Amino acid sequence: MAIAREAGPVGSLHEVREAGLDRDDLLGIYRNMLVTRGVEERGHILYRQGKIPGSFYTGRGNEAAAVGVATAMRSEDVGTPLHRDMGVHITRGVEPWRIFAQYMGRQDGPTHGRDGNVHMADSQLGLIAMVSHLPAMLPVATGCALAFRIRDESRVAVGWFGEGASARGDAHESMTFAGTRKLPVVFVCDNNQWAYSTPTHLEFATEHVADRAEAYGFEGVVVDGTDVLAVYREAKRAIDKARAGGGPTLLECLTLRMEGHAVHDDAFYVPKPLFERWAESDPIERFRSWLRDNADLTDEEEDEIAAGVKSSPRPRISTPRTTSERRLDGAHQRAEVPALPAPGAGNLMAELTYLQAISDGLRTEMRRDKRVFLIGEDVGVYGGAFKVSLGFQEEFGPWRVIDAPLAEAAIVGGCTGAAIMGLRPVAEMQFADFISCAWDQLVTVAAKQRWRAGTPVPIVVRLPSGGGFSGGPFHSQNPESSFAHIPGLKCVCPATPEDAKGLLISAIEDPNPVLYFEHKHLYRRIKGEVPEERYTTPLGKARIHREGDDVSVITWGAMVYTADEAAQQLDSDGVSVEIVDLRTVMPWDKAAVLESVRKTSKVLVLHEDTRSGGFGGEIAATIAEEAFEDLDGPVKRLAAPDTPVPFSPPLEKAYIPQVKDVVAGLRELAEY
Question: Which of 47, 427, 484, 634 is least enclosed, having the fewest CB within 10 Å?
């Protein structure tokens, strides 16, 4: 049984005028629909000619849904259109030649050849670049809406998704979060009845996708997606409602994908009678007939519009594809934050625990910069799983210290959207292990956004990590190596209270996504002097924790203290150990590591993460490649065995490298 409201057609010109459209607007809508189809038809030809690499996707049959919704948006609103929504780009003002340049991988395209298809952004036009993982852009749209709510702006975000993608968790998490907070976002479902080759009855059990909206606490509306005026009317109602503080709407536009998934797909699985029936409701022909009957569209006007569409800018075939290494080198986009030196002697210092230093750094930035906000599960009144933010909500309020649903993808994706809108979000995962629930949002969306679109994504994800307290396999991991492998992400692993504060402030200032690994075992066990005033510690710069001459230990996080204790024991044996604390594993300070290795000629790489695939392997390989002739022994690694983190205290102790293990490894090297 249907639950969502089923919207009827738009009848008279009077009803259209009541919706805010005049005759010129109607002709503009008609033109945009024609341009949309024309661009896609031309693109299909270019693909067949071998001038568009990869593949080509069209939205034939979807023109009314795309143009209708985009027409209802204001210029200050933002959206995340998908690969069937070419009409959104056209309506928002993207010139056709730029679309062709994008598809053809040209230097003058929006992504300069770094990405293809309609994976393109235009911040001036309120368009955010999509990714292929659907519906990964819904958390981003929700995050944009969150930014509007935090800043009390009269703006709305529109997030598009297909009926097939409605099965994924990103959709549910986004709608849950948006519903609980009544965020100004409209979720638009392009229901074209086939998720590639899978029909709707195998995708969901409700009659309509929009029926689910009631469970999220907002209205669901189903509209004929081939009726551009009905789509516009319902989209405008939903957008106006969101702008007025009425919360989200799920607008389902029912259409049929009139071609295959992409140009290589002949859609043999779609019954021919279904195609024939929906062909009778072609969106462009339907609107043309309506204009003839209700708005006195003349032959002369049709000819003029058609001529304008035909003369729209064509692809600049002579523009070369992107081949410059400079374009590829920009992949990392790791602009550094200028360091503010830590205050020297005579300045006020406080004796803080590692946890207190993190809290102090976060509070410092939230007081200084209103763009900074904290979001996570139980971070408000409760103060976070480890009480880092205790008292923050009282000081900064519920819209800067946000208790989120148990929805890690919505949290991280929401941070990405808010960051694109100019805020500086800090997300807290209760445990680093739980970041796996947001892998797609972090690795697919946030990490690649700046490289693809040139948009800064200044988000920080705080990750309480590490073992030593019998947390077991799901509360004790050190997953930094997994993320250090992803271009676009930075990974910070402070060991001291002073670095914990300085590195956190640098991470918040950084224009890239930063993972901030805070070792739980250090929270209340480590104390140190921390400057009371604001300072930054540069990312990518190692710290010499201990000077030595005979052997080097390269490490980070809690292992710094394990190495230090081992070094003290070896002092009595006359073995001088130098300890290099990397502080950040991406970017990592290769120069400092090589300098230490060349000084001692022997090196042990130590980390708490598992050995195989651990970041120590990257360090060891670099030393072997660039300092081989300086070595007087093998590059030795010491890490956890390749098993999950065990729960039992004796097993965990055997799992995590201990002081005795480090001593044994260093002795072996010293005697080599």
Answer: 634
Look at the chain and report how many structural domains it folds into: 3
Tell me if 337 is assigned to some domain: no
The residues annotated with a catalytic role in the active site are 475
The yes-or-no verdict on residue 620 having pLDDT over 60 is yes
Encode pLDDT of 520-557 as tens digits. Answer: 999 999 999 999 999 999 999 999 999 999 999 999 99
Is residue 431 predicted with pLDDT exceeding 90?
yes
Same domain, 527 and 559: no
User: Higher pLDDT residue, 143 or 265?
Assistant: 143
Q: Could you tell me the CATH number of the domain that includes residue 549?
A: 3.40.50.920
Last residue of a domain, one of 313, 337, 372: 313
Same domain? For 513 and 599 the reply is: no
Region of residue 217 (phi > 0: left; psi between -120 and 50: alpha; otherwise: beta): left
Could you tell me which residues are beta bridge partners of residue 79?
Answer: 127, 158
First to last CA, the chain: 77
552-578 burial, b for 16+ CB within 10 Å, e for fewer?
bbbbbbbbbbbbbebbebbeeeebbbb
* Domain match, 265 and 359 both: no
CA distances from 656 to 108, 411, 519, 552, 641 (A): 52, 31, 13, 20, 8
Coil, strand or helix at 80: strand
d(CA 86, CA 63): 8
Count of H-run helices and E-run strands, the chain: 25, 22
What CATH number does residue 507 fall under?
3.40.50.970
For residues 460 and 555, state if they share a domain: no
Beta bridge partners of 198: 195
What does the pLDDT average to over 637-643? 98
Q: Are residues 611 and 527 in the same domain?
A: no
Task: Report the C-alpha gap between 159 and 186 in whole angstroms.
Answer: 6
Specify the pLDDT at position 346. 58
Q: Name the pTM for this structure.
A: 0.94
Residue 36 CA, chain-centre distance (Å), reads 28
Query: Containing domain of residue 41, as a range?
Result: 5-313
